């Protein structure tokens, strides 16, 4: 059964629930879904909003999900959970009540290796304005984001990027110390 890696984050509360409770609820809803066999969550972390100055700090985490769903089906399921919890997609990288990103699914490269390479090569400016027309796996910015890699290192340090061959632990170690230090475990 394929293993999916999911990044979770939020930086504004949903209704009366605090941010961490909302993300825990997202995992509970997902766990009760057909096609989801097991979920292993990471610890929760406080991280600054990205891009800098774009909103309040985030609570971030990750989950390792055993699923029989196809990547597109799982992504639809993640979007449905976000919507259930009040997420409205008004602007790219805006504050949000729940963000569930499909980071990787086993060693799948979607839609193909060249497209993954092209999106990895995009400079940050273009990456902030362009939206991929379809699902790209692994996530093309995975290797740059401490707020994704630190939680992933909790649950899947050995997972290897199918294009670069680097493990989560290796990608995390390659980030500047300052970036890693911004990701602080919550009690």
From TrEMBL:
<dbReference type="GO" id="GO:0016301">
    <property type="term" value="F:kinase activity"/>
</dbReference>
<dbReference type="GO" id="GO:0046654">
    <property type="term" value="P:tetrahydrofolate biosynthetic process"/>
</dbReference>
<feature type="domain" description="7,8-dihydro-6-hydroxymethylpterin-pyrophosphokinase">
    <location>
        <begin position="92"/>
        <end position="103"/>
    </location>
</feature>
<comment type="similarity">
    <text>Belongs to the HPPK family.</text>
</comment>
<keyword id="KW-0289">Folate biosynthesis</keyword>
<dbReference type="InterPro" id="IPR035907">
    <property type="entry name" value="Hppk_sf"/>
</dbReference>
<protein>
    <recommendedName>
        <fullName>2-amino-4-hydroxy-6-hydroxymethyldihydropteridine pyrophosphokinase</fullName>
        <ecNumber>2.7.6.3</ecNumber>
    </recommendedName>
</protein>
<dbReference type="GO" id="GO:0005524">
    <property type="term" value="F:ATP binding"/>
</dbReference>
<dbReference type="InterPro" id="IPR000550">
    <property type="entry name" value="Hppk"/>
</dbReference>
<comment type="pathway">
    <text>Cofactor biosynthesis; tetrahydrofolate biosynthesis; 2-amino-4-hydroxy-6-hydroxymethyl-7,8-dihydropteridine diphosphate from 7,8-dihydroneopterin triphosphate: step 4/4.</text>
</comment>
<comment type="function">
    <text>Catalyzes the transfer of pyrophosphate from adenosine triphosphate (ATP) to 6-hydroxymethyl-7,8-dihydropterin, an enzymatic step in folate biosynthesis pathway.</text>
</comment>
<dbReference type="GO" id="GO:0003848">
    <property type="term" value="F:2-amino-4-hydroxy-6-hydroxymethyldihydropteridine diphosphokinase activity"/>
</dbReference>
<keyword id="KW-0418">Kinase</keyword>
<keyword id="KW-0808">Transferase</keyword>
<keyword id="KW-0067">ATP-binding</keyword>
<keyword id="KW-0547">Nucleotide-binding</keyword>
<dbReference type="Pfam" id="PF01288">
    <property type="entry name" value="HPPK"/>
</dbReference>
<dbReference type="GO" id="GO:0046656">
    <property type="term" value="P:folic acid biosynthetic process"/>
</dbReference>
């Amino acid at each position: 059964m394929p293993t999916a890696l999911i990044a979770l984050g939020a930086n504004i509360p949903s209704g009366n629930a605090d941010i961490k409770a909302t993300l825990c609820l997202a995992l509970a809803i997902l766990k009760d879904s057909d096609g989801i066999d097991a979920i292993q969550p990471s610890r929760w972390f406080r991280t600054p909003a990205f891009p800098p100055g774009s909103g309040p700090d985030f609570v971030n985490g990750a989950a390792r999900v055993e699923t029989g769903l196809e990547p597109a089906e799982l992504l639809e399921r993640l979007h449905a959970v976000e919507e259930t919890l009040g997420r409205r997609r008004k602007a790219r990288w805006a504050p949000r009540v729940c963000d569930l990103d499909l980071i990787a699914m086993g060693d799948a490269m979607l839609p193909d290796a060249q497209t993954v390479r092209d999106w990895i090569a995009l400079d940050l400016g273009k990456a902030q304005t362009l939206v991929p027309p379809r699902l790209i796996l692994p996530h093309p910015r995975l290797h740059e984001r401490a707020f994704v890699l630190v939680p992933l290192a909790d649950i899947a340090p050995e997972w290897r990027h199918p294009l670069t061959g680097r493990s989560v632990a290796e990608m995390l170690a390659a980030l500047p110390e300052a970036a890693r230090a911004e990701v602080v475990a919550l009690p």
